[in-house]
Each structure stands twice: as C-alpha cells, then as structure tokens.
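Session log. Operator J.P. requested a structure for one protein chain; no other inputs attached. Running the standard single-chain path with token output.
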Amino acid sequence: MNNIVSGGIGLIHLIVSVIALIAGTYVLLNTKGTVKHKKIGYIYVISMILLNITAFMIYRLFGKFGIFHWFAVLSCVTLALGMLPILLKRPKQYMYMHFNYMYWSVVGLYCAFCAEVLTRMPSIFNIPNTRTLFGTLTAVSIFIVMLIASIIFGKNKINWKKQIEFYN
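Structure written below.
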C-alpha cells in the first residue's frame, strides 16, 4: 500500500482527491445555483484545499519542488479565482468568472488523475519507467484531457453563459 499512497500524507491526499473528483464531477454535471450545488461545491473546494496542501507535502517523486507542485500552484490559483466572486458576494456580476475558473479547476483535477494513472501503468506491466517515459505519459495525458475539455467548453460556452445569466 505504501507504494500507492506514500504514507499517511499520501493516504489523505488520495482520499481527498477521490472526494474532489466525485464532488467536482457532480457540480459540473448538475444544475447550477441550487442549494445542493452550493453544498457539494463547498465540499469540492474544501477537498481541493486539502488536496493542494498535501500535494505540497509530498516530495517522493523528485525529492524537491517539482512539476506537480507547480500544477498544485496553478490549481490554487484557479480555485481562488473561481471562489472570489462567491466570497465577495458578487455572483450576479461575476458568475461567469466563477463558472469558468471552477470548470478549469475540475479539468485540472482530471488532468492530474489521468497523469497519475498513466504514469503508474509501466510498473503494472513491468516496463522500466524512465524519466522520459514518465514525462511523455504525463504530457500526453494532460494534453488529451485539456483538448477534450477545451472542445466541450468551446461547444457549450454560449449555452452555459445563457444558463448562468438566466439564474441571475
């Protein structure tokens, strides 16, 4: 189990990542602005804060601040910008900003999940996982997830913006 979660901090990181994945997916796929959306949205935000805190405590991969720590910094930025309109009590004027940044926050979480799964695949199949293979698998997984998310966002952006305006 220690190979999968890297101790107590890794276990917390895994648990809150699963919670964030479930809550983030729920919020993306269901009606916005409802009481349930808000409650599950706060579960997502809290789990993402804990996820990022634990990410900054894990140095097993490189032994120092690495690429995934920079992605955690980006995650903190998108999460903060997504919550800013809510915390400032300006949802009517800035609701699209909230939706936009929270969408990309969840997409970033999907990127991290896919990178995590793909970079573990070589060891499952007894393939030596070199830094080049690791980097390639990470880059490819992030590229594919971002491409799919960008296409979905581009196709639905206008309709989503109208829905958001409708609720205001």
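Operator note: The mean pLDDT is 87.
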